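Good morning N.,

You mentioned wanting to compare the apo and holo forms, so I went ahead and generated the holo version with calcium ion. This is what I fed in:
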Amino acid sequence: MSILRAAETTQRTDTGRQRRGNEDSAFVRAPVFAVADGMGGAQAGEVASQLAVEAFEAGLPEDGSPEERLAEVVQRANRRIHELSRTQHEHAGMGTTLTAAYLDGGHVVIAHVGDSRAYLFRDGQLVRLTQDHSLVEELRQRGKLTEEEAAEHPQRSIITRALGPEPDVQVDTLSQAVRSGDVILLCSDGLTSMISEKQVRQILADAPTLQAAGDALIDGANAAGGKDNITVVLFRVEEVGDGVLDQPTMVTAGPQRNGAAAATAERPAPAARLARTQGFTRPSERERHFGRLGKTVAALVAVAAVVFLIGGGGYLASRQLYFLGTNGQGIVTVYRGFPYVLPFGVPMYETSYVSGVAASEIPSDRRSTLLNHDLRSQSSATNLINSIERGQISG
Ligand code: CA
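and this is what came out, ligand included:
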């Protein structure tokens, strides 16, 4: 029997060319890997991303599927960041993305919140495994933006989900079957907002080692401007036969025949801090009950978190965005926020001003260009609605 382990790993983080500090954090301790991209005033973003990756030091809980175990660590990180942001003035409003990978036998399990990304590089092809929790990605999914428009969109750094703002966070998880030779890339948006996936693919294809690939990715993002902190974590999956595990030096790996055991075996003893048997206690029946019941609540809280992020986050600019549309009575209306509705029917906008003009009074050829939900500044929206009310726009 053979097993898969993380054979070659590398991590690099770089401040980039324009930021003064680096708010990204990374975690590499096979079989667990993570990238976090913090945000918040002063050094709060740095603290948030560091807290996020530190949560993995205690290891994964014992119970549940690999996805559940990884997601529980993310929830744990979220609770800690939220608690500190609530109780420590200097950390108020901090948040972070978190994308984590766990190599579990023949699968890589991913847990993900925010707009950092996980990719699979296999046979020269690059496949994105995660979906960004970002405004532009949601607009793209609704067909409001093309892939190219999303990549260039000025609001592309606005995220709709993060660790920190709420006591619970909705964590996306997935499990990807892997085979020997596969490379997994985790990265912050400082990489993917600067260079295209095509360039990332080319760099991975050309680099002789993962370390060289990591360096080339950072260099590529910096050469393109380096507007943000850049972090990359890479690991290659390799098959290891039983014979290797049977070597005397590998005895400490124990009886488990999975990726976790193999990776533990591969590391020197002092690094074996990811003890899977400690750090977590078995949840009580009551907690389990709340775990199930909590899913719906968590989803609702996630929506509330989005609304909070969009509406209240100091680093999110949506309150300054307006658009024109038509209300339920067919009246031209100025809305504040974003022109779309979240799951559960929660709108990401609020009525700012209801005009005295019915949409039907505007010539139909102008109507489609004026009421098309284009995002505007407050002054632009105000000027436009004034012109409409004064009848200055009549075709
Ligand atoms: Ca970033």
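Residues 285-312 form the longest helix (28 residues).

Happy to go through it together on a call whenever suits you.

Best,
F.
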